[in-house]
Structures are given as C-alpha cells and as structure tokens.
Amino acid sequence: MKDFIKRVDARWWYSAVAVLAILYPLIMIALYGQKSDRWIQVANFFFIYALLGLSLNIILGYAGLFQLGHAAFYAVGAYTTAILSTQFHIPILVLLPISGLVAMVFAVLISRPILHLRGDYLCIVTIGFGEIVRIALRNDVKSLVFLGKIPGLGFLTDALSDAVFTGGPNGIFGIARPGIPIGSLAERIKDLPILKVLGLAVRDHSLVLRGHTAYFYLFLAFVAFTIFAMRRLENSRLGRAWMCIREDELAAEAMGIDTVRAKLLAFAIGAAWAGVAGNLYASWVTVIAPETFSFWESCIMFCIVVLGGTGSIPGVLVGTVGMIVLPELLRTWLANIQQWRMLAFGTAMIVMMVFRPEGFWPSRRFRYELEAAREEVAGAQAG
Amino acid sequence: MEATFRPWYQQGWFYAFISLFLAAVLVLTGYRLSGPVFLQQLVNGLTIGSFYALIALGYTMVYGVLKLINFAHGDLFMSGAYLGFTFLGMLIGAGLSGQLLWYLLPIFLIVMVIVAIAGVVLERTAYRPLRRAGRLAPVVSALGASIFLENAVMLIYGAKYRSYPKEVIPDVRWAIGGARLTLMQVAMLVTAFLLMAALYIFIHYTRVGTAIRAVALDHDTSRLMGINVNGIITLVFVIGPALGAAGGIMVGLYYGRIYFTLGWVYGLKAFTAAILGGIGNIPGAMVGGLLLGIIEAFATGFVSDAWKNAIAFFILILILIFRPTGLLGERVAEKL
C-alpha cells in the first residue's frame, strides 16, 4: 500500500482531492436529498475553520509564537464587514480586502508592544486581548457613558447615551450577501434551474449567493488559494526566517534575521487572513454576535493547529476535520447516547496527544525538532 | 538562587515594608477621597482576590515544576464546588441542616482529598506521557481534560444553576467606617490566609518543601541529589487541586450558586493572577490574586461593572509590558 501511494505521482492525488471537493455538494444531494444541506453546512464550517487554522498556523506553527487569542482578529474582520455593510451598504466583496487590512492594522498595533514577551507570558497577553475585544464588542459604545462624568468630557454623556455601534450582546443582523454584478446577462439567466441547485439568485442585475452550496464554492476557492499562498510563503525567505525563529531565536538573530520585524509580519499576515475569514463568515451567516468570538473559539483554533501537526498545511486540514467535523459525525453516530459526545471528544483529544504528540500529520521539520529535543534530554540523562 | 550578598535596600523585608507603607498611604488617601465606597470595594476585592489566589496557587505550582499550564485546573476547582454541594445536600438530607457549620471542616477535608486524587489521576493519564513532547501538546491534552471534566459534571448535575444551602455561616454584619463587613467575608479571608500561610511555611521551612523548590529549579540535578522527582510532581498535583477544591467550596458558600462553566471563568482569572505575580512564584500567586481581586472590585465600584474584566486584562498587559515576567517573577534569561 505504501509503495502504491509513493508510486502514484503526487499531482494525481491533488487532482483526485480537488475533483472530490468540487463534486462534494452534488454527491451529498444525491445521497441525502433534502437533508444534504446540513452536510454542506458542515463543509462550510470546515472551510472557515481551515482558513482560521491556516492563519493561526503562520503565528503559532511557523513563527512559534504562543497565540491563544486568535478569535480577536477573526472578530475584527467580521465586525468590520458587518458594520460597514449594514451602516454604509458597501458590497461584501469590496469589504473582503478591507476586513483583512483592518485586522492587520489592529494586529500590528497590539502586537508591537508585546513582542518581547516570551512563551507563556505572550500566551496570557493574547488571551487578554481576545477577551478585551469580546467585552468591548458586547458592551458597545453605549456603556462608555461613564466617561461623561469626567470633568470636561460632559458632552460624551449625550453623544454616547443611545449610540449603537456593535449592537451589544445581540450583535448585528442583516449583513448583506455577496453579489457579483453581471449587467444585462441577469435577464437572460434568471430562470435557469441550475441557479437554484447552486444556491444562487439574481437580484438587481447581480448574481447573489444565497444557499449553502454557493458559499461552498466561494469558500472552496478561497481555501484553495490560501493553501497555494501558504505553500509559497512556507518556502519563501520570510517563511524560512519564521521557522528559524521557532527553532532558535538567538541563533536566528545571530544569522542576521530581524526577529522583531519577522514576528510582527507573522502577526500581521496571520491576522489579515483571520480577518478575511471573519468577512466570509459574516456574509455567510448574516448575523454575528460577540459570543461567537469567545476564548473557547481561540482554543479550538489552537487545537486545530497542534492536533493536526504544528507548521504543516495538510496537518491543519486534518486538525480541522478532527475539531469541527468529528463532533458533527459523533452527533450522528452516537445519536442514542448524545450526551456522551463531548466526553468522548475530550478523551479523544488526550489520547491523540499521548500517542502522537507531534500531531497527526506534522511537517517533517517540526518532527525533527521534537526528536532532537528528546534526544538531548535522553543524552543528558544517560550521561 | 546563589547566595549573593545584598545590601539592606535590596532585602526582601525592605521591599515588604515599603509596599506595606505605600499600600497604607493609598488606602488612607482613597478613604479621604471617596469614603465608604472605597472601603467597601477594598473588602470585596480582598475577598474575591483570596479566592483567585487560592486557585492561582495550583497553576503556579504546576508551572513551577513542569513548565506546563494546567488548563484543567479550573475544572478541578469547579468539581470541588460541586462535591461540596453534594455533601452539604447529604447532610441536609440527614436532617442536620442546623449544624452545618460544624461539619464544614470535615467536608472541606473530604472534598480536598477527592479532588486531589482526581488531580493525580489527571497528571498520570494526560500529562506524564507528554513530559518530553514539547510545550504545545500538553496544552491540547489539558484542554481535552477540561472538556471532559466540564461535561462530566454537566452530565451528573445538569446544566442549570445549583444553589448552595443558605445560612451555613450565620449572617452577621458589622459596619466599619460606613462599609459593611460580613462574618462570611471574614471567614473566607481567614480560611484563605490560613491555607496560604500553611503552604508558605510548608514550602519554605520543611525538607519536602525544599525538595519541591529544588525540582522547580532543575529536574536532573534534583534527581542527582536523591530527590524522587516523580513523587514531588505527584505531590504538587495533590496540593494544587486540594487548594483549588477548598476555593471551590468557598466560592459556592460566598456566592450561593454554582454552574458547570465556573471553572472556565475562575480558571482564566486565576491564571491571570498567577501570571501577574510571576508564574512559578508562590508568594507571587498570592499577591497577584489579591491585586487582581482589588483591581476588579475598584473597576466595578468606580468605573463600570461591564468593563471590569477588560480593565483587569488591560492592567495585566501594562504590567507585563514593563515587567515581562510579572511582579515577583525572577528575571531569567530563557534558554532556547
């Protein structure tokens, strides 16, 4: 079997996976009919979390920075989209790069002062930023009325008392769906039955994404692009600099790598990607609330990267299957013992780490690193 | 930890004296400026802070010996709260509701023992196999254990709030300078401080305590000195969860109701407190916990309840920017 896998050209495997992915909604419709929507929805969640995992993989996997507050960047992207879409009616696809940029600027601003922190201290600071963002979103600007009590800022009391910005605990409703203007073509294709199957609709001379299937293809295209970009990034000068920092920061600095700049870029690029994922998510569900971006969400992203294999792109995809798709499958398989589902899930996480501490599909480089560290310990104990 | 000569102005007692003096000045000015509110928030903050400190000790001791963040510690604390609830309920069922106060000490001891056993089992199954697996894998394993414990408690007790019996500790109140002090608060503060003092004496003045400090410094050298390193690690997983369980019952008694995500909420706070004081440092966890409680209480009293957690995290980040290893953390050059 192993020989067979090796003999077949890798390109064939990629093509097979791509074809399967493209046909997935059709297969699901053929298998489950009306109920297929749920499985397409699960696939869409898979794509969103794969994007988030790949973006966190830059910070945690490549650069080795202990980041446990990634939901903050995701939230910034999603809320940028939601606010600009509902209040200023800017089209979603225009907001795609804007959300990424806003998240990037936010990440640079907050990570610059904390880059000198090491390991676990960085971890709690990122958790802290994540929580601050969530609390700020939940409280909205209205809750800042107390600032009006400060002498000289009295005008704020009136200005803030019924301002609405993030929608408080209820979040923001009615985010627009992405549409592509197609002009006069709209008249000609609007009655085609294929549109309904694909979850598309024609409105005001543009093609609007409505159903899960349409989003499936949008997300699939974006994930494919991300994987391609990550592979290029991994082997770039910057990517190699990140891995060098992860392995030995002092040595990296001695080799002439500007570690502060490289770490800042890791945060910036990772955050930008998470912001874009936020945009896609917001336009898909059209309702967002602050609790979607809790600390638990950051933990899920963290587990996706570590369970799958730190610093490995296929690893992140496998990790996403484990953290997002597996609980859904357990819901179906363990239908009779529903309540034991999360117990099984928690146990699976421990068992997985005990038996494969390097993750399910680690990058070769990270495995060597772990083995070298283990031999060092063993050598010290023997000697 | 080499014994270097330090002039008097670098001695620990000098810092302690200066800190106490500054604290006294701050308290007096605060009282002059805003009177009873200040005093009330100070009392509330100290009470909450002592809970945080008790839980933070579990994080900081485990981190000290294993360099591992035990994310499941908050859930051990929560199971302590639920076990206390069960035992109190059993006593009420046995018709002893009038004398619950006298049974509190045995309840504390039993719950602490049970949770300590859970802590040891956790270490054996989820952390010991991963001791040489880098630093990321144990975090995921800890999160898995946390999910497991949380859902186990939810399955056993249900997802709704559970109420602790009222009036276990008589409702006695005193008024001091316009602020209200209850017997409950005094009891909580005294218990927490007794536990922390006992731990401090144990760590600093007994042979086993010295062994714990040695293991925290260097596993291999401790092993050469004849210390049973695995035994010490097990002991740490006895002490930490036991203190956390005591904290759990205290939180239940103080607030009167518990819920299964309690561990998540308090765990994050206590971890913050441990980092604030300098993780791995036992007095640091106590100082960090009390300080975090006071910051939160003042943020509630003077700014806004909705923003208290954000303010606490903001102050933590500020402190870490200027003191990257926490308030009392040693300034060590990390070997990579």
Short description:
The complex is a heterodimer of chains A (383) and B (336). With 383 residues, chain A is mainly alpha-helical.
Largest interface: A-B, 57 and 51 residues
pLDDT < 50 runs, ≥5 residues of chain A: none
Total helical segments of chain A: 17
Poorly predicted tracts of residues of chain B: none
Largest sheet of chain A: 3 strands, antiparallel
Structure description:
The complex is a heterodimer of chains A (383) and B (336). Chain A has 383 residues and is an all-alpha fold. Chain A has one domain (2-382): ABC transporter involved in vitamin B12 uptake, BtuC. Chain A is built from 17 helices and three strands. Chain A has helices spanning 2-7, 10-32, 36-62, 71-88, 92-111, 119-139, 155-161, 185-189, 193-198, 212-234, 237-247, 249-254, 259-285, 295-308, 313-333, 341-355, 364-382; strands spanning 179-181, 200-203, 206-209. Chain A has a three-stranded antiparallel sheet with strand order 1-3-2. In chain A, strand 2 and strand 3 (206-209) form a beta hairpin. Chain A is globular and about 65 Å long. The mean pLDDT of chain A is 87. Chain B has 336 residues and is mainly alpha-helical. Chain B has two domains: 61-257, no CATH class; 261-329. Chain B has twelve helices and four strands, in the order αααααβββααααβααα. Chain B has helices at 12-34, 36-66, 73-93, 100-127, 137-157, 183-205, 207-217, 219-224, 229-255, 262-277, 282-303, 308-322, and strands at residues 162-163, 173-176, 179-182, 257-258. In chain B, the strands form two sheets. Chain B has a two-stranded antiparallel ribbon with strand order 1-4. In chain B, a hairpin with a 2-residue loop joins strand 2 and strand 3 (179-182). In chain B, helix 2 runs parallel beside helix 6. Chain B is globular, with a radius of gyration of 20 Å. The two termini of chain B are 20 Å apart. The mean pLDDT of chain B is 88. Chains A and B meet through helix 6, helix 14, helix 16 and helix 17 of A and helix 5, helix 10 and helix 12 of B.
